[in-house]
Amino acid sequence: MEYFQMALTSEYTFLFLCTGPLRQWPYGQTFMALFCFGTISTILFVTNNFVYRYIQLCKPRLLHAYPHYVPLSIGGAFNIVISANWMAMIYFCLWPSDQFLYVSEEIWPNRSAVIAQTSYIAITNRDGADPFKLGLLIESLVLLLSLAQVNPYCAMEIHKCLKINSLSAQTKKLHRQMLKLLSVQTACPTLLMHCPLGAMYLFLFAGITSPPLMEYVIGILMAIFPLSVPITIIVFMKEYRNFLLVKLRLEQPAPSVTGRSAVVVTTTSSKPYPTTVK
Questions:
Q1: Is residue 86 part of a domain?
Q2: Which of 68, 135, 188, 209 could form an SS bridge with 228, CB 3.0 to 4.6 Å?
Q3: What is the spatial distance between Cα 149 and Cα 144, in angstroms, rounded to a whole number?
Q4: Distance CA 21, CA 31 (A)
Q5: Across residues 166-182, what is the average pLDDT?
Q6: What's the rounded mean pLDDT across residues 95-101?
Q7: Tell me: the pLDDT tens digits for 203-254?
Q8: Host domain of residue 41
Q9: Strands 7-10 and 120-124
Q10: Which CATH number covers residue 151?
Q11: What pTM was estimated for this model as a whole?
């Protein structure tokens, strides 16, 4: 069977095609939905970490001004709204339809039979853009760009707070280590998610036919993006890395040191001086 690229754009039409043994319709569509949900969840996970570190270091009064369930409820509501908005865009704008299959037969005539049997997400503006779909698509792009601005802002503010904050050297070291980890986790969505999505939006709205190399690269980058966060955590956090190496039997577990501290209690007894009776 011929191998197909994962991301195709041509004549104001975009197609993201499933590959692999579970690509057949309709079962592969479930995994496609999980992939889309995992993508936005990973972005929100990194953003939540940045916002929490920012509030913890730069705005600690907010954590003590309200009960703990208040910020958790607000953060949870934001995450639910953003995730629901993203999945609504996937369903209403990119979900498979008979109309797209008709268009794909004209754009990719040699691949239309396989496209009809394979799970995918796609959108076409070839015969004119649907205002609702176009508006929802642009709104999701603006949402992603807004989320992309939160992480650098929090990183700069955290860096400033670490310079002027009167914390111990060990505490500052731990926070700087976490800041480096979060910075790498910010670079991963930029390189693996925002840049490929930006290229696909550009090709879609400009009607450019994507070159074969970019079709492969975009698919590979977006496929490995959900794995970037746990990999960076394991690489940068020594405790997680040692735990994984021990579980894989690549490293011996560190011996546990138990020490007993002897407490010496000294007592002084004072005898009364004899009194002289006159």
A1: yes
A2: 188
A3: 9
A4: 12
A5: 68
A6: 86
A7: 888 888 888 788 778 878 877 777 777 777 777 766 666 777 777 766 666 6
A8: 7-248
A9: unpaired
A10: 1.20.1070.10
A11: 0.72
Phi-psi category of 138—alpha, beta or left, where left has phi over 0 and alpha has psi -120 to 50?
alpha
Q: Which of 132, 113, 161 is nearest to 17 (CA)?
A: 113
Q: Counting Cβ atoms within 10 Å, is residue 104 exposed (0-12), middle (13-18) or buried (19+)?
A: buried
> In sequence order, which residues have a C-beta less than 8 Å from that of residue 47 and are 6 or more positions away?
147, 150, 151
Assign 3-class secondary structure to the chain.
CCCCCCEEEECCEEEEECCCCCCECCHHHHHHHHHHHHHHHHHHHHHHHHHHHHHHHHCHHHHHHCCCHHHHHHHHHHHHHHHHHHHHHHHHHHCCCHHHHHHHHHHCCCCHHHHHHECEEEEECCCCCCHHHHHHHHHHHHHHHHHHHHHHHHHHHHHHHHHHCCCCHHHHHHHHHHHHHHHHHHHHHHHHHHHHHHHHHHHHHHCCCCCHHHHHHHHHHHHHHHHHHHHHHHHHCHHHHHHHHHHCCCCCCCCCCCCCCCCCCCCCCCCCCCCCCC
Predicted local distance difference test score (pLDDT) of residue 59: 83
Per-residue pLDDT for 52 more than 80? Answer: yes
Domain count, the chain: 1
